[in-house]
Amino acid sequence: MTTYSPIERRQRGALRLAALLLAGIGALAWLGRSADPAAKPLPSGPLTLGAAIAFTGNANLYGQDQRMGLAVAERWAQQSAPGGRPVRLQLEDGASDEPSAIAAFNLLIRQGVIALIGPTLSQQAFAADPIAQRQGVPVVAPSNTAKGIPEIGHFISRVSAQSSVIAPLSIDEALRRDPALKRVAVFYAQDDAYSTAEVAIFQKVLAARGLTPITVQRTQLADNDFQTPITSALQLKPQLVVLSVQAVAGGNLIRQLRELGYQGQIVVGNGLNTPNIYPICQRWCDGILIAQAYSPDLNTPINRRFQQLFQQAHGDRPPPQITAQAFTAYQVLFEAIQRLQSKGGLTGVTLAQARTNLMTELLNSTYATPLGPIAFSPEGEVLQDRFYVAEVRMAPGGRDGRFSLVRELQLQERKP
Questions:
Q1: Which of 54, 72, 103, 367 can pair with 63 through a Cys bridge, CB separation 3.0 to 4.6 Å?
Q2: Which string of DSSP letters, residue by residue, matches 124-179?
Q3: Distance between CA 381 and CA 281 in Å, rounded?
Q4: How far is CA 298 from CA 288, 340, 388, 392, 411, in A?
Q5: Helix (H) or strand (E) segment spanning residue 32
Q6: β-pair partners for 217
Q7: pLDDT given for residue 1 in this prediction
């Protein structure tokens, strides 16, 4: 019998422990690979699209619009391709912050979705989209307009035109109405990726039109009392106010601007592109100008069908832009899945291969959508040439209103 010294016994024990740890790590790695749905054969039944949108937090005003659009899209898909590959929708609350969007993306990816829709905010997208990119999961963003979203990676795309395309249109309308405009006050949320990206574009557009802001007021996402920055700005007698903030803050800003005596034009960014601002700014919403990527007045078969389905569920009112964009995000994925199915690209493949095939099909197709005809650049940027400028018109009583079409524009350089 061999006798070991105390030091030798400790060394041998450490070696046995290291061997056990290595074996355990190997087993965990094998279990992880075997549990990864991406490595498994694609099931022959319904495919699942995951949607991470804001049900809670300040962004839930947008999430309400998006949820309506996705529900209408499901009804449209059931009726438009009854014999096609079944697709089901799995909704998760992406809330209004980055950790919630990350958690929702991770959960949906683990559940084996073939693609993702969302998240609601650009700031969330910069945090959550890299997760989908690393795991090869296609993402279609319905409402992310900040610069740099598609550049996150090959699997990231969007149907929401970026701010640099839309922002100049409303500024040009304000100048058309008053060519003598010179004095501009700008407000934006400095802790929000969408606002900081959009306000930079607004300022670039203003400079190109010979307009230098007399003041730039920085706010916070959580602000709701703007009397101090408004008072400071109004002392400089602006002729135009430009707002790049989210819906709740924007509604409060508009109301307080009017209450404190401002009577000039107000141009707002995409963050206020929802009728959910009406109960916030009420009668003071009247007259604000906004550029849009969707108009209910677009007379195409798919837009008429979209509006018919929307009004069957929500009454005789026009669908909001964000609702149309959410519908479009679902639509392009659904149509790409059906084309891929007919080509055999979903047969005899793993989920990971199906996701890659779907992304390729998505980017190489064109789509007739409620937004108008669209396609994608190789980087996943939406190519859309029809845009609109609208003016809010509030109903008597000031509790409801509508985006009234002022001008339709076709940008040839953005043609799909």
A1: 54
A2: HHHHHHHHHHHHT--EEESS--STTSGGG-TTEEESS--HHHHHHHHHHHHHHH-T
A3: 33
A4: 21, 29, 10, 18, 16
A5: helix 6-35
A6: 187
A7: 47
Token readout for 244 is 């790049």
3-state secondary structure of 350: strand
Q: Residue 157 and residue 240: Cα distance in Å, rounded?
A: 34
pLDDT tens profile 171-214: 999 999 999 999 999 999 999 999 999 999 999 999 999 998 99
Q: What whole-number distance in Å separates Cα of residue 246 and Cα of residue 3?
A: 75
Q: Which DSSP string do the residues of 284-313 spell out, in sequence order? A: GGTT-EEEES--TT---HHHHHHHHHHHHH
CA angle 280, 283, 289 (to 5 degrees): 85
119 with 108: CB under 8 angstroms? no
Nearest-angstrom CA–CA distance, 306 and 298: 11
Q: Which of 270, 199, 264 minimizes the C-alpha distance to 233? A: 264
- Burial annotation 211-226 (CB, 10 A radius, 16+ → b, else e): bebbbbbebebebeeb
Strand ranges of the sheet holding 372-376, from the earlier edge strand across to the other edge: 367-369, 372-376, 382-384
Token pair recorded at residue 409: 């524009």
- DSSP designation for 41: B
CA nearest to 298, candidates 392, 387, 397: 387
The partner residues of 242 in beta bridges, in order of sequence, read 186, 267
Q: Output the pLDDT for position 17.
A: 53
Polymer length of the chain = 416
Q: Which residues of the chain have pLDDT under 70?
A: 1-34, 413-414
Are the C-beta atoms of residues 320 and 63 closer than 8 Å to each other? no
